[in-house]
Amino acid sequence: MSSYHVSVLLDESIRGLNIDPEGVYVDVTFGAGGHSKEILKKLKSGSLIAFDQDVDSESNLLQDDRLVFVRHNFRYMKNHLKVNGFPKVDGILADLGVSSHQFDVGERGFSTRFDGRLDMRMDQDSSLTAAVIVNEYDEVALQRVFTEGADLKNSKLLIQKIVDARNVKRIESTSELKEVLSGMTHPSKVAQFLARVFQALRIEVNEELGALKALLDQAKDVLKPGGRLVVISYHSIEDRMVKNYIKSGNFEGVLQKDLYGNVNRPFAPINRKVIMPNEDEIKDNSRARSAKLRIAERLHE
Ligand SMILES: C[S@@+](CC[C@H](N)C(=O)[O-])C[C@H]1O[C@@H](n2cnc3c(N)ncnc32)[C@H](O)[C@@H]1O
Is the shortest distance between the CB of 54 and ligand 1 below 6 Å? Predict the structure, then answer.
């Protein structure tokens, strides 16, 4: 098992890609390369294009002529595929969110368990950090961040606490933020509350919802008819976006019909019900517990 990251729903997601050994596949979230390795095992003369925006993931690269690695945000997938000579592909896999490695390196600021700078960038070259959000966003922007990313009931009080504290002194570290928010919830709920606050900040820092929207829209353009879209998400906002997009081709989930009442949509779901890890997988890997897998097939135009 990799200490960098243990792949989630590995068999189910690879099966969902329905791999053609001569086909072209995209793993937009390379991480430790667990899913990519399985794809390569099933390819003969096919190709795999892998993306990851985190420079650390390059330490997991595999020596394989069939693999092209792109260290960039997957929101630019379509352009990179074209530039690399793969304008159309047979399957796209996205295993969203952060890797265990990113959580486990305390100084990157993703985890409530360690003290570190309020950073939370997956792409170390980008300029927006959690410290910028906490110290420089106005109250309206903070309200959006905590509503969109965490759906927190007491976000008004949370924002007030942040604003009062930063008026005295900039909040620079994860432990300073935790201190500012102390006493806001019942002691038995502190870990859960902080996890949601950190999740909301991380989603904003990395523009995760915008990147996912761009990815889904581009998946429609680059997948060949019959090609597979396989997405593993870890929170309800993302899963709702994926579910709606697969159902209708838009993020609201509204079916578009032509004059004759036929539904126009780019994808058909392969699994009607969302796929979740079984108890054994969750027992072995607690990070799998919130995973939700959806698989869809690109329809003919
Ligand atoms: C859950 S891990 C993937 C683990 C991988 N499937 C494996 O089996 O090792 C998610 C990875 O995707 C990367 N990532 C997340 N959002 C991204 C984005 N918008 N563009 C590029 N990489 C992204 C993260 O840096 C992280 O390494």
Answer: yes
